[in-house]
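Hi all, long-time lurker, first post. I run a small reading group and we've been trying to get comfortable going from sequence to structure in the token notation. Rather than ask abstract questions, I figured I'd post a concrete chain and ask someone more experienced to write out its structure so we can walk through it together at our next meeting. Sequence below, copied exactly:
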Amino acid sequence: MRLVAWWALISSSCAPVLLVVGFTTATLLEEPGYNPVTQTISVLAAGNHRGYLVLTATLVAVGSSYVATAWGLHAAKPAGRLCLAGGGVAAILLTVFPAPRSGGSLSHGAVVGVGFTLLAVWPVLATRRGRRAPWGLRPVPSVAVSALMWAGAAWFLVEVEMDGAAGVAERVVTSVQAAWPVVVVASCLWHARRRARPRPAVTGPGTP
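-- Answer (accepted) --
Happy to help. Here is the structure in token form:
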């Protein structure tokens, strides 16, 4: 079986691009009362916001990209692929449970928590050991990027408690989570190409 389907590079690359373009466009469409520094992306998916349709389409597209990438990433362990796909489903579900304009929402918070956790642990659960494993699926970079995501989550929670730059923290963390599948897929494709190269023949002494 191939390490990764060729189209997984397209699906994985779409996620970070669509995410950034989507939340940027939705922010530009929003009324002046919305503050992207302190307010989260999910607020824009509420039905009473101008950026509702844009961000709703963005969440569906990004979530679908995660699911497609998980399907094509054959080299990753099944548990990791399942978590990546689950994170995509959670992103889509956020359109059903958007954050309210003010106050909190238990259902929204639950979906966000589950989605973040799945996207933060999938790199570790997808790892393969040994030199034959693609770089993006090796334990060291996988654990490092997972730790970075959890650090970003801690930063986000601190900003929420302090009424600070929670919107900035969320945008940074979600962008990192969207970009990592691209790195993994690219490393798998590069690894497969390198493995397919013909090895030079070994000649003995006296061979012309």
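A couple of things your group might point at:
Helices lie at 8-29, 52-72, 78-93, 106-125, 139-161, 166-196.
Residues 8-195 form one domain.
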